[in-house]
Amino acid sequence: xxxxYHLSIKEMSKSERPREKLMDLGVRTLSNAELLAILIRTGIxxxxxxxxxxxxxxxxxxxxxxxxxxxxxxLSNFKGxxxxxxxQIIAAIELGKRLSRSSNRARMNINSPRDISNVFMEEMRYxxxxxxxxxxxxxxxxxxxxxxxxxxxxxxxxxxxxxVFKFAIKKSASxxxxxxxxxxxxxxxSTEDIKITKRLIEAGKIIGIEILDHIIIGDGIYVSLxxxxxx
Length: 231
What we know:
By secondary structure, this protein is of the alpha+beta class. It is 40% helix and 15% strand. The longest helix is centred in the middle third of the chain and has 23 residues, at 83-105. The radius of gyration is 22 Å and the shape is elongated. The termini are far apart.
């Protein structure tokens, strides 16, 4: 049996306690484990809240990325983390995602494929299924909205021009950028990707709404069909 003794947070000096550090020195001074410990709040007999947090973050070797798609059930498997704490952690992660998306999209002017990939990359790179989305732009190339058109393996039956352009018409969009992710992490376009894109471009010409590009999101990388001169 191990005789290792773990300090509880209450036994730490005030300057080392996560909440006190946050209040005295600012949130940026805290490590990932300390931030997570604030959400966990209390530890167990053998482990402090910081120890529990470190244990969770070291689970897969990916640190914070492990929490990206964690479920309540998965987090509850950790000793000291019940459903209530698991829900608090998942809710905090989701708030962070939504805040990031909102701030990135706030009337951002799109001048290049990199601009649009920067807006959607962190959201779409982790999807376990293919999501086909459209970004709606005004005459100043500012994003005025985005919509999910389909979820699942991309094919022409799922991505119909009617579904794509009804949102553009409703929002009075001047142009559209198509986006979808490849869960494999490889953003190279398939034959079906190219076929669907060209079909939607032709429909846009008839309606009078230009499709500027089709961005395929991989794991931290993207492909622009416009930059590749495919469209």
